[in-house]
Each structure stands twice: as C-alpha cells, then as structure tokens.
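User: I'm preparing a small set of examples for a lab meeting where we compare how different chains pack in three dimensions. I only have the primary sequence for this one, and I'd like the structure in token form so I can line it up with the others. Please keep the answer compact; I'll paste it straight into my notes.
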Amino acid sequence: MEKIVKKIKPIHILIAILALAFILRFWNITKVPVSLFGDEVDLGYQAYSFLKTGKDYSGNILPLHFNSLAEWRTPLYLYSAVPTVALFGISPYGVRLPAVIFGVLGIWAFYLLVKELFKSEKLALLSALVLTFSPWHFQYSRAGFEVTELLFFLMLGLYFFFKGLKNGKWMWLAAVCFCLTPWIYSTAKLFTPFLIVFLTLVWRKEIFSLPRRQLVYTAIAGLIVGVPIAFSTMFGGGTARFDYIGIFTDPTIESEVGFARQRDALMRGETQIGVNPTIIDRLLHNKFTIIGTVITRNYFQALGADYLFNTGDPNSRHSIQEIGQFYKLEAIPLVAGLFLFFVKTKNKRLKALIGFWILAGVLPSALTRDGGTHSTRLILILPPLVILISYGIVEGIKLVKKNYRKYLVLVYGAVWVVSIIFFLHGYFVHNPWDNERMWHYGFKEAISAMKEVEGNYSKVIISTYSEPPWIFFAGFYPYPPAKWHEGYPFKKTEVKGFGNVSYIDKYYFGTASVAGEGVYGFGKLLDKNTLYVATANEVKVDLIHEPERTPGDLKLIKAIAYPSGAPAFYIFSGR
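Assistant: Understood. Below is the structure token output for the 575-residue chain.
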C-alpha cells in the first residue's frame, strides 16, 4: 500500500480532481436544473440565430453586445456556445456544456495560479479540491451562466502575469486573458481595469525591467482585445444593463431623501405641507448619503456570515436555498486562514493582492441595488476566499500536535464529506422539485405540445400572464431566425378579448381579459380555429386532477404539470 501511495504524483491527484469535477458538473445535466430558464433559452436562440443567419436574433451582424429582449448581453459566452448549440441544438447540452467545460478548466487554472503564488503543491491541490466541491462554483457550472468562463480567464490571466514577471514572454497572454473578461460578464468591466492598475503599481519594478519588446507586445495585445469591447460598452449599449440595476439610477432614492427630510421636520414639530429642509437635513439626507449607505450595506452583506454560510443567495437559480455559498464547516478555516495568512505571510505584496481582490471584487456588485447577496455578480471573490479556506486548513493543521493531526484531518474530512453529501442531495433531489417554477419548467413542454397541433388552427395565442413568453416560443419552437428578423421588433394588433397584443405570423402574445372568471371566461374569446396556451395561474382550476371541470365551450387539448404534479400550462381551443 505504501508503495502505491509513493507512486502517486501530484499530477495524478490533479487529474483525479479534474475528472471528479467534470463528472459532478456533467452528470444528469439535462434534468438538473429541471429546465432551461429564460436567460438560457435567450442565449441558445442567439447562438442558433447566429448559426443560421450570421446575425443575432435582433438582426445585428457579429455584435459585440447582443441585443436581447430584456437586456444587452456580453458576447463571449454566447459565441462559446455556438459550437455546442450546433451539435445539440437549444438544449441543456447545447447551452450548459460551455459552463461545465469552463468550470473544470477554471479549477485547473486555479491550481496553476495558487501554485505559482504560494509555491506549494499541497495548497494548490487542496484549493482545487475545495473549489471542486464549492456549492457556489458548482451551482454556476451546471447552468448557462457566463461566470465560470469569467473565472477561468481571470485566473489564467493572473497566472500568466506572475509567470511573465520572470522574463516577460507570458505577459501578452496575461493581457489577452484580462481583456477578454469584459467580453464575458459585465462586472469585469469595472473590476479588471482596477486589477490591471493595481498589478502595475505593485509590481511596477519587475514590469518595467522586462524587455521593451515584450512590453510592446503586451500593450498591442491588450489594445487589440480590449478596445473593441470598451468602445462597445461606452457607445454600443454595454451600459444599458447597469443603468437598469445600478444604485445611481434607482428611482426610489429621491423619494427616500424626501421621506427622511420630512421625518426630521415632523420630529421638530413642523406639520405644514411642503416643509423646507434645513442645512442639516440636506447634509444628512441626500442621494450621496443614501447611496453610501447602500454600498456599505452591500459590502457587509456580501462578506457577512449569514450570506456566506447560512442563507446564500435568495434567488433559487443561484442557490438551492438549503445552504450558504460555502459549507458551514468552512467558516472555521476561513477565519483561521484570514488570521494566519495576514499574520504569517511575509510577502506584503501577496497579502495586498488577496485583500485587494476581495474588496475590489465586491465593488461591482455593491454598486447595484441587490448587490449584497447577488452571487453572480459577487463570484469574483470566490477564488480568494477559497484560497484563505485552504490556507487555513494547511496552516491550521500545523498548529496542532503531530500526534493529533491525523485525527483532526479525519474528523474534519468526515464532516466535510457529510456536508457535501447533504448539499448534493439537496441539489439533485430537492432542487428540481422546489425550484421548478424559478427554472421556468413547462414552457418547453407547452411549446412542443402546441407545435404538434398548431397545423389545425389559423391563430395561436400564447399567454403573457406570468413570464414573458416570446423567447420561450422562439427558442423551444425553434422559430426560423430569418423569419424572426422580418417580424422583429414585433408589430401590434387588436385581438378581441386580449387587447392590443404583439404578434409574428399567426402567433400572438397576450392575456385573456376575463375579469376573474378564469377558464370559464375563455370560451367567450376562443373559437374552433384559435389555440390558446394558458398558464395554470390564470385558469384558476386544477384540470389535471379534475379534467371534468373543463367548460363545455372549450376543448382541453393538453395539460402540462410541474414535476411536483401541480398544474403548469394548459392548451385550449374553442368548440
């Protein structure tokens, strides 16, 4: 046995970790998460449109920001999905496989970076293992989110940067990787420039002692990759999303300021309408103090124990709601790692890097309205926190007497494994049932059922009662992109009982106006040539378990249930 152990090399352990990471992220990916949610379908249809026409579904050729129905999207993950959508269509494999691949590659890049920074094989392997089982990283590696690709290029860029400090030949690759990150996810548009400035200032002596030719190559590479996305961000719609979610454009700030000033005035005994704020009121209650309060609150939430170890992200697409962003057990090595790293480590610049990475990594999210617990925007801080957890384990064990170390490792390892088992059970068993609605289950099944019978009808109406259905129709149909371009942006027309609705070809998007009657009012609006895809919420009767309650003036063609058995969609026509 000892001979076998001695023959195991670090590369073998790394390969085993990466293989395990791939299996965990790829297994059953068509069923968990339970369905493609709206953003995934949007991404898939953009890639599908690009494959078929060379344009996004808005009709733009090779866009640097994709104009989606809901927002402008950064392009690189979408372009990364073109090959997989070509192979597997708009499906879980087509949309999610890039996230799986970049998730695994990100673990490899993380190993390389930690090894380069700390010159410790043990710490690098442990960091890769902790990241492999991280609930935060795991969650985003199994759905069509861009951020696993973001982390891969960010960590690879840092690895090439520190490797390049020796002779400069890797610096141009670092520049390319860094400048690709804003192409992937919008938080990098703020974080990466700060990171580049930080690295340049702290390691300026090593950088400016490199061969001039290497610096020129690096600058050229950075400009070639970085300028187009910077230009598109400033002038091509790249800031539209931040304008919508940023705290600086929050429409409630003005009313908050007014309420706070009025409250102070009432406390002073002023009761007249339209009180005039004093200088003190203006100094203490203004948009800057409110924005500062929001940013501070977001920082404390993002770095707080409740978010990190208890509740996690309140959005169930970002978290399974049964665990924080990390396992509770990892709070111990995180605290230990934080203390030991900043006390024991002699490399001041390395300490500055980790500290900067955490504080600057929170900033892009802190500047948004729900940024204190938004795990997608906060994922930039995942790598340094994992480093501190791993460092706390490695260095913490050294503080224990040798006779007790193996017992500590066994106990910690056993509890960690139990924590992982509970998380995986929650993810694969509870999650598909508990979060079926958040993952927009039923749209694919409803559109597929509609497609089977639509040839018998001259008009198809798809309900807008709950989620906007346009992208689900386009992606799950899938509607020919060339025809979509002809009808986009959508025209509107008046449909009796549905109001002024948008349409393309014979497909109309609107909600039946039945004044609370639910399904019992549909018969007044539908004829035998009209098909209506209705949500269960507007039907108000469970026709899956009580189909006999279907009104006589309606034909129930199909009922679609959630995995839990609750009604999701119905397809009706008039008689």
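A couple of notes for your slides: Residues 524 and 553 are 8 Å apart (CA to CA). The chain has a mean pLDDT of 93.

User: Perfect, thanks.
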